[in-house]
User: Fold Arylsulfatase from Exophiala viscosa.
Amino acid sequence: MLSLLLVSALCLAAITDAGSNVYKDDQLILQDGTQPNSKQPNIVFILTDDQDARMDSLSYMPYVQKHLIDKGTQFRRHYCTVALCCPSRVNLWTGKAAHNTNVTDVNPPYGGYPKFVSQGFNDAWLPVWLQDAGYNTYYTGKLFNAHTITNYDSPFVAGFTGSDFLLDPHTYEYLNASFQRNHEKPVSHEGEYATDVLAKKAYGFLDDAVAADKPFFLAIASSAPHSNVKFADSWFGNNLTEHSIETSPPVSAERHKHLFNDTVIPRTPNFNPDKASGVSWISQLPKQTQENVDFNDEFYRDRLRALQAVDEIVHEVITKLEKYNILDNTYIFYSSDNGYHIGQHRLQPGKECGYEEDINIPLIVCGPGVPQGEVSDIVTSHTDLAPTFLSLARAELRPDFDGAAIPLTASTLDAAKDTRHEHVNVEYWGFALAEGNFGTKMYWNNTYKGLRLIGNGYNFYYSVWCSGEHELYDLTNDPYELTNLYATSHSLPYTFADQQKSVKLSSLLPRLDSLILVLKTCSSRECTHPWEVLHPSGHVKDLHDALDSRYDDFYEVQQERVSFSKCEKGYILESEGPSDIKRFSLEDIGTRGGSRWSELV
Assistant:
């Protein structure tokens, strides 16, 4: 009887979970508790490539500040779950974790557009679902890596009313872009500035969308501020090395080249530190020379300059929406596929790491009912964007989503402070690439499972590497991730920031391991409610609950730990250690603990 009641309670929770649309008496109820009006809103999604949130790039974009940050809500704790272009984008467009898409790289055999197609997603992803919901859908710019001038029609991308894609191998050549419109052949734009070409295409699609007089979704995906890249043929395959790719600083439009001449990378404590930090190959990086630092500062300035043309797109899109008198029924989202580091932890320009610079990324939303000039600290990720877009489209959410719709009204944002999940699943497979002119190298032992856990009094990043190394950072006291607590004695106490609790690391670490054990193979609700998997009774809802001493034996003795048997270049389950998860049993604690049963029920 108890089991039946628990199953019923969990099913009800799944139906009425905060942040999702539900149906009541056959009427769709929005996440703010209201019924939709008859007119579905328009959605514009502006997506940059490799834009940082931690090096202050948004402060150098005045139109983003004026139109989006001042007029909308900025989500300060928004994360990508995999810090690499193509896997992150597939995660975003499908609402599925990378281990469920199995698109984990930028090229075959583990990633890229061919992998996206082979996994069946060309017929099951956001633009298709939006069309089913009555939307016209438009896209221009970079979609996926390994989407090329030779395979663009094998097959054509499905789901768009109108499309004009940037194609490899010229995706990142700012003055030599190739675009491919609808089912036409690719066209070279050699000598033209790629972001300006993108802008014209975006404005044309916006005009088309308005003329069609249907609700529309328009995605504008710039390659800025990504490095300028030239690929060798060997890049597209399984034998790539650092010699397969030539990276240089991003290129700005001629009108922006004079800007920011005195600007430098923020000199945070983790910028080119005197003492090495991190684990694995990162811990072996040398301190950068002054010549290296000077080059990286100019690299940073070039990124800011390249973003100015994107900033102009934001202004022109807003201007057009106002001109067409549809701004008040249009949601605008601004984000990036992943973050970026330059000099932090002695790293050369690049991404692919689990540090905040790489995974904490911009997300700004403005539109009907969205609070203006607000900053939210609820935890969100790219896995939540597809559910969010469908929620706004007044479409029924898919039960196999690994994320949950992001609350966008004052009331739901306020409620989410107490009800929304506290974690982000972080994962990565394969290489890390050092870009720029110094220390250019491809590191292959860069496979890890990570966890961002943010709650009342705690703020952790924990990762387990395929090499067997571990990292644990307390970002409340160590926001720049310089002190690896895992390397200290596990018998030492850790005191939570609110001073309400103190536990030994030997008790904390097994709880974090168990969360990763769930999240590394989770699907659907398991990904948003991992504590339910470990404690089906529902008595544990956050880390504080899990740290109750009554669960010590369960976590510290009974539960398996996250590990790898081999470092792989992609998602190969048999190399990723144990995946069997033990569920905590109330009957077990009642049998062994007597009166403690009544305390829990």
The chain has two domains: 10-423, 447-600. The longest strand covers residues 448-455. The longest helix spans residues 290-323. The chain is about 30% helix and 20% strand.
